[in-house]
Write a structure and sequence with these properties.
With 401 residues, the chain is α/β, with parallel strands linked by helices. It contains 14 helices and 14 strands. It has 3 domains: 65 residues, Winged helix-like DNA-binding domain superfamily/Winged helix DNA-binding domain (Arc Repressor Mutant, subunit A, Orthogonal Bundle); 145 residues, ATPase, nucleotide binding domain (Nucleotidyltransferase, domain 5), CATH 3.30.420; 161 residues, ATPase, nucleotide binding domain (Nucleotidyltransferase, domain 5, 2-Layer Sandwich). Strand 10 and strand 11 form a beta hairpin. It is globular, with a radius of gyration of 24 Å. Bound molecules: zinc ion (ZN). Zinc ion binds next to helix 7.
Length: 401
């Protein structure tokens, strides 16, 4: 016989009850009792723990099957907030997000990543404080922080690992530095992984296998396999920029020292360089996008050709991973159907029918917000996990002691 639990010491079971409520599998005491086989009195004790920690909230009465209607409970989205941070080469974006994943407020400012970690992270902290204050919240309300950075990261420690465009950031302890202001879990990953999570969570939650490809100054991908982000042994899984392209572009030198890298052939700067050498007044990837929008034939042709090169590498990825969706994002995806057409042409031609039978190749409509949305998804998954729920219950009971 299960006896009532003391109110201060059974977080193990309380966290399990929380997962049932979070998923919406149970809404009432009776439903929890049925799903867990716990005694009603035990269920009550565990609900009390979650209610006093602020994680659950009563939301009215369920339909009655006779007698007094039972109370219903749900996740209290407003009990805590998380911070989502997207750092790019030249911008910093911060959002404050509730536990249900709703963005409450966000801000994007110019920020040069080469200034180094301290000035950039101080800026992030300042923006976060301002957003919290606007919502009438203090740093205590923050349960976790998710950060995307434009370079490789050792995810388990949150330290960048030899990031090429982030001088001064190598091995910098981002969680410890942000932890001075916000003593909460801080999760850091490279921007492409975070973008893949953002796409998966917001647009393809039912899809178990998704490949997100960012085509911008560089080319990289984030892999979702069996609903999990695949990072690889040292966090470099999906780094497609330096895979060799065969055929056209084989002899193009890449900044990494090799020849014929995908990035050197098909990323934004490569397309801009090619068009400028052929006599067009194009200096940057943004100029390429503008020329495509104006319908300039040479630019359209070059973008489609870049798509084919990307497609030749993606065909291999599709054979290896069998995704059902490939999402193309990054600044060059603003060239729309032309880039996609080149990619589709080669992927469908070079892959076996079984791999492409239900494969969709689409562009991202999130327009640069993938990273912010993904950073929020990454940290929410952690904050609402059973282990973290234990910590939140303890934190509230310490605060009220
Ligand atoms: Zn290279």
């Amino acid at each position: 016989m299960d006896s009532p639990a003391p109110q201060t010491s059974t977080p193990t079971a309380a966290r399990e009850v929380f997962q049932l409520m979070r998923d919406g599998r149970a809404r009432t005491k009776a439903e929890i009792a049925e799903l867990t086989s716990l005694a009603r009195s035990t269920v009550s004790a565990r609900l009390d723990l979650l209610l006093s920690a602020g994680l659950l909230v009563p939301v009215g009465e369920a339909a009655s099957t006779g007698g007094r209607p039972p109370l219903r409970f749900a996740l209290n989205a407003a009990s805590y907030a998380v911070l989502a941070v997207d750092l790019g080469a030249s911008h910093a974006a911060v959002a404050i997000v509730d536990l249900a994943g709703e963005v409450l407020d966000e801000v994007t400012v110019s920020s040069d990543i080469t200034e180094g970690p301290k000035p950039v992270l101080d800026r992030v902290t300042g923006l976060a404080r301002r957003l919290l204050a606007n919502q009438g919240l203090t740093p205590d309300a923050v349960a976790g922080i998710g950060v995307g950075v434009p370079g490789p990261v050792e995810h388990s420690t949150g330290r960048p690992a030899n990031p090429p465009i982030m001088p001064g950031w190598h091995d910098f302890d981002i969680p410890a530095y942000l932890g001075v202001t916000f003593p909460v879990p801080v999760l850091v990953d490279n921007d492409v992984n975070v973008m893949a999570l953002g796409e998966h969570t917001t647009r393809w939650p039912e899809t178990s296998d998704l490949l997100y490809v960012k085509v911008a100054t560089g080319i990289g991908s984030g892999i979702i396999s069996n609903r999990r982000l695949v990072r690889g042994a040292l966090g470099s899984a999906g780094d497609l920029g330096h895979v060799q392209v065969s055929g056209r572009g084989e002899d193009v030198a890449c900044r990494c020292g090799n020849l014929g890298c995908l990035e050197a052939v098909a990323a934004g700067p490569a397309i801009a360089k090619e068009l400028s050498e052929s006599g067009l007044t194009i200096e940057s990837p943004q100029d390429v996008v503008a020329a495509v929008e104006r319908g300039e034939v040479e630019a359209v042709r070059a973008v489609r050709e870049a798509g084919r090169a990307i497609g030749s590498v993606l065909a291999t990825c599709v054979s290896l991973l069998n995704p059902s969706v490939v999402v193309v994002g990054g600044s060059m995806s603003a060239t729309g159907e032309y880039l996609l057409a080149g990619i589709r042409e080669v992927v469908y031609r070079r892959s076996l029918p079984l791999a492409t039978h239900q494969l969709r190749i689409v562009s991202s409509p999130l327009h640069g917000r993938e990273a912010l949305v993904g950073a929020a998804a990454m940290v929410l998954e952690d904050v609402l996990s059973p282990r973290s729920v234990d910590a939140l219950i303890e934190r509230r009971s310490r605060a009220s002691a």
